[in-house]
Amino acid sequence: MRKKLPVWKVFIFSLISCYSMAQSMNVTGTVVEDDGTPLYGVNVTVKGTTNGAITDDAGEYSITVTKGQTITYSYVGFDAQDITVGNANVINVTLAPDASVLGEVVVTALGVARDKRALQYSVTEVSGENFTKARENNLGNSLSGRVAGVNVSAPSTGPGGSSRIIIRGNKTLGGQNQPLYVIDGVPMDNSQNGNAGMWGGSDGGDGLSSLNPDDIESITVLKGANAAALYGSRGGNGVINVTTKKGTKRKGIGVEYGLNYVAEAINDQSDLQDQFGQGSYVNGVATKPSSIQQASDWGLQGWGPKYDGSQIPTVFGETRPYSYAGNNFDRFYETGGALTNSVALSGGNGKQNFRMSLADLRSTSIVPNAGFDRTNISFSTNSKFGEKLTVSGKILYSKETAKNRPKVSDSPGNSNEAVWRLPGNINIEDTKGDPNKPGALPDGLAADVYDAGGREPGTEMLSNYSNFWGSNAYWSAYQYNNTTKRDRVTASGQLRYDITDFLYVQGRLSTDFYYTKAEGLTPQGTGYAQGGSIGESFTNRQENNMDAMIGFDDVFGKISVNAFVGGNKQYSKYEQISASGNGFSVPFFHALNSANNRNFGYGFSESGINSVFGSAEVGYNNYLFLTATARQDKFSILNGKDILYPSVGGSFVFSDAFVDAMPSWMSFGKLRASWAQVGLTGSLGAYQTTQPYGLSSNPHLEKNMARFANSSTIANPFVNPALSTETEIGLDLRFLGGRFGLDLGYYDQKTTNDILNASIATSSGFNSTTVNVGELTNKGFEFLFTATPIRKNDFSWDISLNLATNKNEVVSLIPGSSELAFEESRTQTSRIKHIVGQPYGVITGITQKMINGQPVFTSEGLPVRDDVYNEIGQSVARLTGGLNNNFAYKGFNLSFLIDAKFGGEIHSGTNQSMDQWGFSQNSLIGREGQAPLTVSGVTEEGEPLNLTLTPQQANAYWNNLGGRNAAAYIYDASFVKLRQLVLGYKLSREVVSKTPFQAISLSFVGRNLAVLHKNIPNIDPESSYSTVGGAQGLEYFALPATRTYGVSLNITY
Description:
Layout: H1 7-23, E1 24-32, E2 43-46, E3 52-54, E4 60-66, E5 70-74, E6 81-84, E7 93-94, E8 105-107, E9 113-115, E10 123-127, E11 150-153, E12 164-167, E13 180-183, E14 186-188, E15 201-202, E16 216-222, H2 225-228, E17 239-244, E18 254-266, E19 280-282, E20 285-287, H3 292-297, E21 311-313, E22 319-321, H4 328-332, E23 336-348, E24 352-364, E25 371-385, E26 389-403, E27 407-408, H5 415-420, H6 447-452, H7 473-478, E28 481-498, E29 503-522, E30 533-556, E31 559-584, E32 595-620, E33 624-635, E34 642-652, H8 654-657, E35 666-680, E36 693-695, E37 706-709, E38 713-714, E39 722-735, E40 740-759, E41 768-792, E42 795-805, E43 807-812, E44 819-824, E45 830-835, E46 842-848, E47 850-851, E48 854-857, E49 865-874, E50 879-889, E51 892-902, E52 905-908, H9 909-917, E53 934-939, E54 944-948, H10 951-964, E55 970-972, E56 975-986, H11 989-992, E57 999-1014, E58 1034-1035, E59 1042-1052
Parallel strand pairs: 1-7, 13-17, 38-41, 48-53, 52-58
Antiparallel strand pairs: 1-4, 2-3, 2-5, 5-6, 8-9, 10-16, 11-12, 13-14, 15-27, 16-17, 18-23, 18-59, 19-20, 21-22, 23-24, 24-25, 25-26, 26-28, 28-29, 29-30, 30-31, 31-32, 32-33, 33-34, 34-35, 35-39, 36-37, 39-40, 40-41, 41-42, 41-43, 42-50, 44-45, 45-46, 46-49, 47-48, 50-51, 51-56, 52-55, 53-54, ...
Signal peptide: 1-22
Protein name: SusC/RagA family TonB-linked outer membrane protein
Keywords: Cell outer membrane, Membrane, Signal, Transmembrane, Transmembrane beta strand, Transport
């Protein structure tokens, strides 16, 4: 029989049910990062219950709760946040990064991801957004000022130019000191294809200039030998690991669109005199041109009288006023620009994910008729089959076209030199000449008039002076033609199989291949090459890698073990076909088949390295870690010789080991120490240890019979890679919940058995051989301070400061030699040398002769030079640093980066020439109506001399000093620059929700906006004509520095 429930119980249960229903509610909202980026996969749970939800790819969630309950929002790498439910049905949450947690994973050698707290060496990771906010065409330049111990040189060599990155000092005397670049585990050839030197050339770009910044997830800098030891002979200069973006689990297909436009303008730092014009001294009197012949002969001299506005003849066939014509830099240089459009699609279900992107860059140079275009396509996929097998693949393709890369240093093709050479009374627009052929002799100018100006008959270039080696800025820009087209593919495929939850095997195939077609033309009619010349080359470079490894990762109580062993097979190939000719059979038909004298060349090389490697890391209680690695490389270029490269190190998280003893303000503390040996192959290439021979073309000998050694350098089969040994210690601290941090490091590095070319007795039949000699040391401190002084409500302020010192010394060179000469300056008054007991790259040069500490002059007051090259400067900065600030308020963001270098010197050929030609502010001293020029010292006989020079003597003084003395033009190359400024706004979620998009941000950006401090007149302190080799610290009419400013738009759908 069924019992009836009493009426009063029914009534009570009904009341309770109604009350519960009244208290239950549905809460929705969005969880984002500090910058407003939605967070996918955030755990949203009701504290004390099993009730929970997870945010979707838009950061949105929905959960049923009861008023008064507490919701916990938690996500790996962020501080968890608790919110008590009130009456609101919508709760939006911003999670702050958990700066005190150093358990983040970073990509290390061989693409292996490791827990940062276990690392025994210094590693710095730079987020990909730093390369897209205010972008550079070359990614390397964007690292300026961001990483302690990384010295970035980015001279102004035009769009698509290369960058020079040195980590912890120069380690080889031959100049091959740039790090290894690795893209998603694939080694990339970053050869700098420029050929600039004292006699001119151009910057041909490098591998980094082919990468699309929008594809970059992060860049990790492995600074020490221990960090790079697993790369063996290739890791001696450090490693830069580039990780590209990949697809992740999300709902639907995500679309990212980016638009970036920046204008580029010259940062004119010249300060030339504007009071005296073209002319020379005649019979002791400053004289302006009175004939076309004088106008031509004095076209390179600014030693005329003061401007008076009178009409004077010119080589252009017309008279012009003898007065200051204005700033020719502003007239000649254009406003360049770079427009980038990029789109990316990504998606996946967690098992199969993909990402594909397309980017297009169109840029124009400040130099007329020059530019750089690049198209990038990428595709990546990763798939998981079952619970054990993971397959991934990636391909990056780039297509570059560089039009008329600017010529630099001493070259008639260097338009910047032609601009500087003009006297102040000449308007550069008068040198445009033929409107249909800029820079050429116009039809309206009679040949006899032009010839009377000193030019040889048949010369087509319009010039303002009779200097045979001179040029015309417009002729250089429009008639000199060079084009470089490069197609590059970087691809890899990887397979990983998890045998158990602690044991796995992994294999990877990869290739980096690029094809370059280069064409160059010196036009017929150029002053120093009347007949003109042409050249073409076709170059293929390829590197293939096969990797396999087996790994183990498990925990046994308090003991953790992470180990792997594997092997690598690397193969490289280089092939080039070239052709050149000079003199054209059909006048002005500039084609190779029209050249009278033609030459052809062919180059080929291939090499390989077979390697085995291993790593073992043992941890105790997640605060003490010991790691050992080893790699053995077997080289084809060393006739199969193999060399072992070991490393050991440890880290101790003492804040976890002694939790109870730590003060409340100490969040984290770690000590690290390591020792490692790695290799440095330097300039050692294929066939340098085996004697090459040329093939016979004698019809009386057997066809293709080896006939003669085709090199003046005899091979040395006993040469080895140089050896770099480094010890590193460091301290990593975090305070006040990670709001403040301090990372200190010290390294002591030594290179032994460097690879150099040594002269030998010519009686051997050769001039030189390759030997292992020399020793070089680097010691330095690195300092990184990070802080979040303010993080309150909608406002935050983040700051980081990095500083690094480097003390370098050349300990020994070739036996019997105390110095090694390197690059020479164009003025032929200075030279870079390595000198025993001195730092790497000492600037030596001609100085003024001294007697008992007194400068020596002739009786007419001219400086007497000491023809011995003396030490006058150091080309490498001793201290580098960067200051980065970021302010965020609601959707607004303001950030700036200050970059600085101190302690290096530079020899300026530009300033030297400006004094010699009478165009500089210095050259005003001693002229009519100007401050007198007084010299004080001794005569060549040692007699005291104190003489105030006449204006004509002052002219001779500046000509002498500018033409013969390097020491007077050594400047401190220290600088402080506002490297980057970004002001951005990200639309609020409420606004974006009314559009089809998920996120919209707009930024105003600027790069290299201001030089806050420098000590060198007229030019930028980073001026140089090359990033190739070790001959830094020399400058000669480098392109003007530039500043860029523009806008960036990013939309996510």
